[in-house]
Input
Amino acid sequence: MRLLKTLRLASRDYAHEWQMSGCFVLALAAVLGPMLVLFGLKFGIVGGMLQQLVENPENREIRPVSSGQFDLDWFTGMQGRGDVAFLVPRTRGIAATLELNSEKSKRIVRAELIPSGHGDPLLPAGGSMPEGMRGVVLSQLAAEKLQVQAGDRIDGSAVRQYLGRKERQHVELEVSGVAPVGAFVREGMFADVRLVEAIENYRDGREVPEFGWQGATNPEERSYPGFRLYAKSIYRVAALKDDLTLQGVEVRTKAADIDLVMRMDRNLSLIYWAIAVIGLIGFSLSLGASLWANVDRKRKELSVLRLVGFRTGDIVWFPVTQAFYTGLLGWALAIGIYFVAAFAINNMLAEQMGAGQEVCVLLPRHFAMALALTLGAAVFAAALAGWRSARIEPSEGLREI
Amino acid sequence: MENVFQARNKAKSTVYHMRDVVRDRASEGVTFRLRVPSLQISQGEKIALIGESGCGKSTLLDMLAFIAQPTEIAAFRFRPELEGDAIDVAQLWNKKRMNSLGDLRKQHIGYVMQTGGLLPYLTVRDNMSLSRSVLGLAQNDTVESLARELGIARHLDKLPETLSVGERQRVAIGRALAHEPSIVIADEPTASVDPFAAEKIMSLFIGLAEERNITVVVASHAWRHIQRLGLRRLAHHTHRSKDGRTTETVVNG
Output
């Protein structure tokens, strides 16, 4: 009840002195606003670069430098690792092509076969995937040249020299979807590993029972010359590379690029934190000083409250309530300043950035952190000053003015 | 025998009892000491402390209102209600029981400051009601009727800044009386108004205190008018050292 009375009195005083209260709010926002913009820039620039690294699957890819021999046990072992997101065998490049033809186009397109499957990072998650032996995803360029879209049927054919004569076999395929431009820039076809293997077997003069193509019997043990491997995240690339190198597999990664951005993040973070800590000290001192000065200014009024019987604890709540208002309003105004500045900066640099990318960005949790920090510092400073005021003999406060 | 009964009755009705209470204050190389060898104030008494500035009037009033801690105390007792036991104020000060002293002030004492001490963000009504609301008393027509008696009823919904100095002092008197205390302490309540208004306000104040049988301790410069109102003057004398660096006031009564 008494606490409620104190809160009400503090609120009325705060509203009555709106000009002075406004000055405190402005002083707080003037320090906090630029700090938010600074943090938004750091978070936007470095965060954007990291996001780009994370989002682009190429950065997670680990490619073998030369051909090797990888059997199914090796693939099973690697797929079981926690740091591997996607792994698929590659057949010999020279055998992994197919000539494609559609009813809508007169052109014959020679497409590279890309072994794929569910979870392929090159294809959008939740989008079309190669399905079975006949469902394929075409690269954008291949689809354009064939003038087909998802749901269309195309003809795939391959030629081989078998028993001294040239032979061509056809397989009817269904376009499950078209991959985004960035997935594969040349004419290509994402296909189930079994289809890629079948084409390779056919070219090698072996039988393909699934399509009824004749040839030599397939060997029981199969090995692959390469693989397409993606790490779970960019942070796992370096460790995976080291493991493969230990196995004797020489690989190429973008670890150097990743390291560069990570170093930039570390250095920029260091610079930011140096500025932020200086700013924070300045901010805390300015906030503490203004709230301290405010409590000092109100010592007579606080002494009057003690004279009429308010207790020490009640008196402390008076400046704390007002500091809470200053903190809350100052924070809100600082956010307003941040949004205006971020809008201007992002608009100014929009042309240099990619679609959807922003230079100055803050997340809701950053605003919440700023609020907690501001209110914490404000309430602490006011509570200290209030406590000091409450401990002084009321007669001293009353006689001061 | 009669003297013994009289003495016992007087002890029973004593609100303040002070013996060898001292308050020292030093500032800018000048030392001030207020010494109270003995002081008894009885229930319903109207006491005036008359003297020039700096003689220690306010210091004594602050000690009586428990807002200034004495430097030395042999005995300091307070009995706000005749039926109740005397409270050992010395012990409360020694134990730094500021809240207990605050509670005593809240329940039994009204204080009129020289400068009014009104809260600028509260209306006259809310300023006068403050002492009542802190005590949790019902908001009846006490404040309105006091305001009428003090001649400030038309100002009840105004902020203090819109009132004259004299009107503000009336509001301060109203606030000191609104929670129906048994003691009112007034520190030169009319010092900042003209003599004519001062006389009027003081008469009004003492009249209201008489009606309510309130014990009054008032500090003032003007003895002539106070004397006419029938207040008992508290004896005191002030010594200053030759170099003017030490002042001691001794109050007895």
Remarks:
- The first strand of chain B starts at residue 14 and ends at 27.
- Chain B has one domain: 2-252.
- Chain B touches chain A through 29 residues (CB under 8 Å).
